[in-house]
Specification:
Keywords: ATP-binding, Cell membrane, Membrane, Nucleotide-binding, Transmembrane, Transmembrane helix, Transport. This protein has about 575 residues and is an alpha/beta fold. The protein has helices at about 1-15, 20-45, 55-100, 105-110, 110-155, 155-200, 205-210, 215-265, 270-310, 370-380, 400-405, 420-425, 435-445, 450-455, 470-485, 500-515, 530-535, 550-555, 560-570, and strands at about 330-340, 350-355, 360-365, 385-390, 395, 410, 490-495, 520-525, 535-540, 545-550. Strand 4 (about 385-390) and strand 5 form a beta hairpin. Helix 3 (about 55-100) packs antiparallel against helix 5, helix 6 (about 155-200) packs parallel to helix 9 and helix 8 packs antiparallel against helix 9 (about 270-310). It binds adenosine-5'-triphosphate.
């Protein structure tokens, strides 16, 4: 029952074209039936009366054979097409689903696992539909019809076969089950290996800088080794399974040949019938043997379906649920916001503050105090455990994620870019057309016009993997230009600590000031100039706001803030 449910779930997820599938299965069965007619014709050719024109019968046999090949080719192509279409649907579904996962998923799981599921697991399904299903259909048809024909031809010989066939399968089943267990472990291992290898490749800089190559190679070698071990185990089982099958099958054939030969010599069986009989035996050996691989193929698909289904349990974001938000003229307010990433540790405790329209609110505090977490809550990557974030007095949860995030411009500390061109990066996520003139304007606002002038291909220059072909300051300015292009109502700035040289820093600072003009801005401040100019400063310590006010107010009242300023001055 659960097996059937599982399969239904797969078909429900992949939504194959049922009509086309029925046609393909019908063709597969038809070609199997044509295959069964050929030995009968051969029998007629051999045992027929001397007057029967054997060339004519031979031509008929050839015609039937060609027809069988044509139909079988068509059904094979159709089933492959259906399998590929299922995989396409599954992959689209998985990509849509995974991109909608809440951010927390990506912070815990390894992306390579998802890649493996999307590629390897779905491929197993394609193989099953494209190869195993046709084998199964034609196998069943061949088996059923052959047994009927054999009984019709000679019941004594048929009884021998009917008794021995299930015996063969009985031998194979336990080994098939073992094969499945190994292949399930192999699939899991492949997913883990893909995940770890992807991670190594994407942190090449860190690996090289820490002389970590040898350690990484060792880790990978361990995984490759265990894949090798599983492969060997699979090989062992197969090396027993294959000869065992051959032994059983050959024994059966020899027995039938001996018995049939005896009957022919006694004159109770015609030679043509005997040959036809033998051809039928050979024709059903294939399906009987393939049943064991279909079984293990099915088990693999079951495992793959389970893994894909696990993704359904992950919490996803609904981007469009809720009203459109209008930020213009509205205050943004935190009311008693408490938040924890996990049960063990509360990160923000009863944080309350208000940001009036176009004000700049700076967050200052020791490392790990919860400044970025506040940003995460504003971006709605996470929800407060208690308390509320209000926009114009209304709970942020009322508004659609999409409309809220459209209003936010985020400039991170160290901007990473997507691989692609500068244009791709600037316009990423925008649905409207953007002209070069518009790009010129935002690049100039971001103090970055010379970056474009310097590059021979201008906006069409490639930025390299995660922007590695550009300098830190250039990447920052592109991020600022990207924010300008969106004309956000709300700005989230994570100031860089000290990654830029003083000239670049000045330029970036100017660009940021341009961006902050006439916008409500939240900034994680590391520079004195920023806090001095902020309308309000929130000093956060261990998730609590321990000081709130202007620079001068805090300087007079908050010791740790004073220390922070002195440190900045010294720098
Ligand atoms: N995704 C996460 N899951 C679990 N814990 C997290 C996560 N992100 C941050 N934390 C923890 O939350 C606490 C606050 O981190 P947060 O990044 O908000 O601090 P911060 O004030 O921005 O620090 P910094 O100035 O060093 O960037 C830290 O103890 C950190 O370990």
């Amino acid at each position: 029952m659960s097996k059937i449910k599982q399969k239904n779930k797969l078909f429900e997820m992949a939504q194959p074209n049922k009509k086309l599938m029925a046609v393909a299965i019908f063709l597969s069965a038809t070609s199997a039936i044509f295959g069964l007619i050929i030995p009968l014709i051969i029998q007629k050719v051999i045992d027929g009366s001397g007057s029967t024109p054997s060339i004519g019968m031979g031509l008929i046999a050839l015609g039937v054979f060609l027809l069988e090949i044509a139909i079988s080719a068509l059904s094979y192509y159709l089933l492959t097409w259906i399998g590929l279409k299922m995989v396409k649907g599954l992959r689209e579904r998985m990509v849509k689903k995974t991109t909608a996962f809440e951010l927390s998923y990506f912070q815990i799981e390894k992306p390579g696992e998802l890649v493996s599921r999307t590629i390897n697991d779905t491929n197993l399904i394609k193989e099953f539909v494209g190869e195993k299903i046709p084998q199964l259909i034609s196998g069943i048809v061949t088996l059923v019809f052959t047994v009927i024909i054999l009984f019709y031809m000679d019941w004594q010989m048929s009884i021998l076969i009917v008794i021995s066939m299930p015996l063969c399968t009985l031998f194979m089943l336990p080994l098939g089950k073992k094969l499945f267990n190994i292949s399930k472990k192999t699939q899991d291992k492949i997913a883990g290996f893909t995940a770890d290898f992807t991670q190594v490749l994407s942190s090449a800089e860190l690996v090289k800088a820490s002389n970590g190559e040898a350690e990484m190679v060792r880790q990978m070698e361990d995984e490759i080794e265990s894949l090798f071990t599983y492969g060997k185990e699979e090989g062992k089982v197969n090396s027993i399974l294959q000869p065992l099958m051959m032994f059983v099958v050959m024994g059966l054939i020899m027995f039938i040949v001996a018995y049939g030969g005896y009957r022919v010599s006694q004159g109770t069986l015609l030679p043509g019938k005997f040959i036809a009989f033998m051809i039928y035996i050979f024709q059903i050996i294939g399906p009987v043997v393939s049943f064991s691989t279909i079984f293990s193929g099915y088990q693999k698909v079951k495992g793959a379906t389970e893994r894909i289904q696990e993704l359904d349990k992950v919490v996803t974001e609904d981007l469009t649920k809720g009203r459109q938000v209008v930020i213009d003229g509205q205050d943004i307010q935190f009311v008693d916001v408490t938040f924890a990433y996990s049960q063990e540790k509360t990160i923000l405790k009863n944080v309350s503050f208000i940001a009036k329209q176009n004000q700049t609110v700076a967050f200052v505090g020791p490392s790990g105090s919860g400044k970025s977490t506040t940003f995460n809550l504003i971006e709605r990557f996470y929800r407060p455990s208690s308390g509320q974030i209000l926009v114009g007095g209304e709970d942020l949860e009322e508004f659609s994620l999409q409309s809220w995030r459209e209003q936010i411009g985020y400039v991170p500390q160290a901007s990473t870019l997507l691989s692609g061109t500068i244009r791709d990066n600037l316009t990423f996520g925008l649905v409207r057309e953007v002209t070069d003139e518009e790009l010129d304007v935002v690049m100039s606002q971001a103090c970055g016009s010379e970056i474009i002038k310097r590059l021979p291909k201008g906006y069409d220059s490639e930025v390299g993997e995660r922007g590695s072909l550009l300098s830190g300051g250039e990447r920052q300015r592109l991020a600022i230009a990207r924010a300008f292009l969106r004309q956000p109502k709300l700005l989230l700035l994570d100031e860089a600590t000290a990654s830029l040289d003083s000239r670049s820093e000045k330029v970036v600072q100017q660009a940021l000031e341009n961006l902050m003009e006439n916008r409500t801005t939240f900034v994680i401040a590391h520079r004195l100039s920023t806090v001095v100019n902020a309308d309000k400063i929130l000093f956060i310590e261990q998730g609590e706001v321990t000081g709130e006010g202007t620079h001068h107010e805090l300087l007079a009242s908050h010791d740790l803030y004073k220390e922070f300023c002195n440190q900045q001055l010294a720098e």
